[in-house]
Write a structure and sequence with these properties.
Blueprint lengths: L1 H21 L28 E5 L6 H9 L7 H11 L13 E5 L9
Antiparallel strand pairs: 1-2
């Protein structure tokens, strides 16, 4: 009788563990209403574009391409460069650029170091 009780108890515990792993027992949190971000004010149009489009070659990274475009040290941090690249190319991540594809790369002026 004792063995039967231990067997039933162990099967019940196994079922509980299986159920917790497969379906869980905690309720899922309600999805919060997604709040739309306020639109950014339109930037003033200038004659020159704020980016240049370039095809990626083997061995190039966003940083190396930006350094090549500017021919000098860049006036802003790497994090800001990555953020600007991803804003100009909303469907792409800076670390996932593909060889042979064309991307838009931001142009910086020396006075942008005060950002």
């Amino acid at each position: 009788m004792k063995r039967l009780f231990i067997l039933c108890l162990s099967l019940f515990i196994c079922y509980i563990v299986y159920y917790d792993i497969q379906k869980g027992t905690l309720p899922r949190p309600a999805q919060p209403n997604q709040i739309e971000e306020p639109s950014k004010p339109a930037m003033a149009q200038t004659d020159a574009p704020d980016f240049v489009e370039r095809k990626v070659r083997a061995g190039e990274t966003v940083l190396s391409i930006l350094e090549d475009i500017h021919q000098s040290s860049l006036p802003i941090s790497i994090e800001e460069m990555i953020q600007d690249f991803e804003e100009i190319n909303p469907e792409e991540k800076a670390e996932n650029i593909v060889i042979g594809e064309s991307y838009k790369f931001p142009l910086y002026k020396e006075d942008e170091s005060q950002r």
